[in-house]
Write a structure and sequence with these properties.
GO terms for molecular function: electron transfer activity; heme binding; metal ion binding. By secondary structure, the chain is an all-alpha fold. It has a domain at about 45-120. It contains six helices and no strands. The chain has helices at about 1-20, 25-30, 45-55, 75-85, 85-90, 110-120. α3 (about 45-55) packs across α6. Bound molecules: heme C. Heme C (HEC) binds near residues 90, 91 and 101.
């Protein structure tokens, strides 16, 4: 009986102390990897769309020498191309449209989703 009890005692000690083996690294590794989120609920022209255009499009599509005659600084023109489908068609590299940015890397899926959400909302000047 005694050897059994002391074995149980040792086992329970080992079990209790096993918790202390967890270190910060192990705990972090056990966290589920956060999936990259793309929140398109609060997309606005001013805060979301215009900065993407500034970053990736207005180098060519500006008022000075608008590529293809398209000035994407001017909201009215952005709206026109949003409404006629050419904006989304070109950035999503859909068949029948010139892929944009011309000769550049495709926009991220999240940025394309932002355009999509904004256009679905009626491409408002907000
Ligand atoms: C390196 C210069 C350049 C950049 C950067 C660029 N474009 Fe263009 N884009 C052009 C040119 C040139 C044309 C006209 C091409 C043609 O008519 O064959 C054009 C055409 C277009 C068209 C009409 C496409 C069609 O099939 O009717 C749209 C819409 C457009 N661009 C949107 C964008 C958007 C949005 C961006 C940024 C994500 C962008 N462009 C970035 C040069 C550029």
């Amino acid at each position: 009986m005694r050897p059994l009890l002391s074995t149980l005692w040792l086992l329970s000690l080992a079990w209790l102390s096993s918790c202390t083996y967890d270190n910060a690294e192990d705990l972090a590794a056990e966290e589920p990897t956060p999936t990259p989120t793309c929140d398109v609920r609060s997309v606005t022209y001013t805060a979301s769309i215009s900065p993407i255009l500034a970053q990736s499009c207005r180098g060519c599509h500006n008022a000075g020498a608008p590529a293809g005659g398209i000035n994407l600084v001017d909201y009215a023109q952005v709206k026109r191309y949003a409404d006629n489908g050419r904006l989304l068609g070109s950035i999503s590299h859909a068949a029948g449209y010139r892929a944009m940015p011309l000769n550049g890397a495709k926009l991220s899926d999240c940025d394309i989703a932002r355009f999509q959400a904004w256009i679905t909302a009626g491409a408002p000047n907000n």
